Amino acid sequence: MFIVRLMSVALLSVVLAGPVNAHSNHGVAAPISETQVSERAEAVKQQLISSKQVAESWKNVKNGSISQQDAQGGKLWVVKYDNPQATDPANKSLYVFIDELGNIITANYTGKL
């Protein structure tokens, strides 16, 4: 009797495991649009300001220029913000790098990965 119960539990576990583990969206994710890139880069800039990693003067900087570049893993979006109020010439431009799927790669003042 023990073996029958054990087999029943095992069979039931296998049958129910399929629906529990099933999920949609097995396809390749679509690349993000330029509008989405702009929104994500703006969110990164605001986070950098909030965490005091960049100066408060970056709040006044809007509409970064958007371009794409080829990278080792595919295409990257690069959003460049220019801050004329920056006191340090090395910190006048802020670059935000985003992969083609919308993942934030990095942000820096150099424009290099």
Task: Put the structure in a nutshell.
By secondary structure, the protein is α+β, with helices and mostly antiparallel strands. The protein has a domain at 34-108. Helices cover 33% and strands 25% of the residues.
Secondary structure layout:
Blueprint: H1 2-21, H2 34-50, E1 65-71, E2 74-82, E3 93-99, E4 104-108
Antiparallel strand pairs: 1-2, 2-3, 3-4
Number of helices, where a helix is a run of at least 4 consecutive DSSP H or I residues = 2
Protein structure class: alpha+beta
Largest sheet: 4 strands, antiparallel
Share in β-strands: 15-25%
Signal peptide: 1-22
Pfam families: DUF6488
Keywords: Signal
Protein name: DUF6488 family protein
Care to describe what's here?
Keywords: Signal. This is DUF6488 family protein. It comes from Spartinivicinus poritis. Residues 1-22 form the signal peptide. The protein has 113 residues and is of the alpha+beta class. It has a domain at 34-108. 33% of the residues lie in helices and 25% in strands. It has helices at 2-21, 34-50; strands at residues 65-71, 74-82, 93-99, 104-108. It has a four-stranded antiparallel sheet with strand order 1-2-3-4, with helices on one face. Strand 1 and strand 2 (74-82) form a beta hairpin. The radius of gyration is 24 Å and the shape is elongated.
